[in-house]
């Protein structure tokens, strides 16, 4: 019933919010669904969901953001249902019915009859208004199709393309500045339904990653497990609401709930990189100094793009990753990296001073956690705190890269950070003792200091590991330093 739980958040029941609230609502929530403050949370809409698994019904309460309200627009099924409402604590005493369950009898009244008529009409009007607004805002000229083709999704996609346009052409045409980083929602769903899964290329706690083919082109399809459904919500939300198209951020194509083999699956479709993760690459490849520096530069460029807020109507909020590690960094064919997995990301805008931490109960990877996270002293209401934890993790990734760099014919085998201090699958307490109590950091190989570039990288990583978060380097400072190092490395070659 893996997919049963996946669909629980995606199927709506009786009510749809009349409109997107202007301000956040206080909603009742369950601790096992998301982080709660005294059994409450804040969001744009409240929900109550129910999952039927092996005859046992489980009900959950929580809140969603306005960027994923489209999931409150599908009819209930026998195994999954969700109801949404739009007033403070409106879900506190609300229950939800699965398809086929009997509605408790209520005395007929004029109010009930009016609600039965007006609510669906208002919901329909809201959907029509939002659809028209999106079409007008993004000027989706290529979605204008003939009336007699409206029912055919294949024709919809053909109308959005010209001739034999590739996926790259389609993205370039439709990803206008400021409109997110993927295709229009209608085309996203069409693309997802035209993908053929070829081979599984990775598995983890999040689910599986498959290589898929769309119109002859390789794409990566991340299929989320039921316990990580909130990560799918979060990545979908971030990719579709902010400008994240950058060479060093994994390219987003589409996100969709799709039905395969009579079960519901949550898909995130991205660019495919055959080299796999940086973790995989370092296992099998020793680096020269130039490649080492190239990897380090590309990662910090991607992280800086996340951390920096771009102002204006065509800008983006500042974003902290919160789970940076070599497994979440992919290697492109040009030997540059791109950062993946935004399921734990936090967003912040200076204008509204609103810190959006999402609704994900998942925590980061223990081995890469900063001391303030391990000892639970991090300022969760302060956005800079999250950026500083990213810098700690970047220092660990830099350590992984430099260890695999050849100096005078010598190189170490790949090892994860703290490999000689904690077990292979360390517990929270294991890491807390090493990082907080003993204040240990990974040992830097002495051979690195015989090379000027690697010696400079060793200095950077140590300045990423200060116990005091505010003393750590910023992504901007690291990028500037690495840029100077690259210039010094390339200058002798140019002179030759």
UniProtKB/TrEMBL annotation:
Signal peptide positions on this chain: 1-22
Pfam families: PK_Tyr_Ser-Thr, TGF_beta_GS
Domain Protein kinase, residue spans: 195-485
Catalytic activity entry: L-threonyl-[receptor-protein] + ATP = O-phospho-L-threonyl-[receptor-protein] + ADP + H(+); L-seryl-[receptor-protein] + ATP = O-phospho-L-seryl-[receptor-protein] + ADP + H(+)
Family annotation (Gene3D superfamilies): CD59, Phosphorylase Kinase, domain 1, Transferase(Phosphotransferase) domain 1
Topology term for the membrane: Single-pass type I membrane protein
Cell location: Membrane
Superkingdom of this protein's organism: Eukaryota
Protein name listed in UniProt: Serine/threonine-protein kinase receptor
